[in-house]
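Hi everyone, sorry if this is the wrong subforum. Our group has a chain we'd like a structural model of before ordering constructs, and none of us has done structure prediction before. Sequence below.
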Amino acid sequence: MSGVMPSGGYVVEQPTEGGSRESLRALIESVCLLRGQEFVLSTGARSDFYFDCKRAVLRGDALNLIAHQFLAAADRLPTAPGAISGLSIGADFLVAATIQLAAQQEHRMIAGCVVRKDRKEHGTRTFIENEQPPGTKVMVVDDVFTSGRSTALACERLMEVGNEIVGIVGLVDRKQGGVDYLSRKFGVPVSTVFDIGDFPALNGDHCDH
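Answer:
Right subforum, don't worry. Here is the predicted structure as tokens:
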């Protein structure tokens, strides 16, 4: 269908120290921002655009840039997190890349865990892979914030085992109330690397209904 597939022709420049936000923004706009048809969102709403951020997190160049941004976000939190987590599968790659970069930089946040949507049916029979000890301060991440409810589920599961949520960070905010919802619900800093205003390709003509 015309206009749905991105060109994919963008070449990422080598990241500067801390990663290049503009390189990452341009790559997401090029390979993740889909137009040209009606999309059904996780909330059930319909939209004329969609951020398929798996196209970025499954590219080594983009994932490296994302990890730099998320590690920097961790350093800006008032309370330093000791671990990073999120809901599978949206957060799996984000968590893995960020803790790998943290280890390379000898950063304190080298532990990660992933929250399953459904309890594991064998072995540990847990909701959380690599569950962290009670009292661990956790930064929760996701790729796209829409309503924020899937990210909230991850936070709730982590709190049930005694972890403390100290911040929530997303890659892209669709500006549909997710950030405000998460901030009110958990009372912690909530931020994203980008929101829809950062993408000129949308030209202010997007709509959700």
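For your construct planning: The chain has a mean pLDDT of 87. The helical segments are 21-31, 54-57, 60-76, 92-104, 149-160, 178-186.
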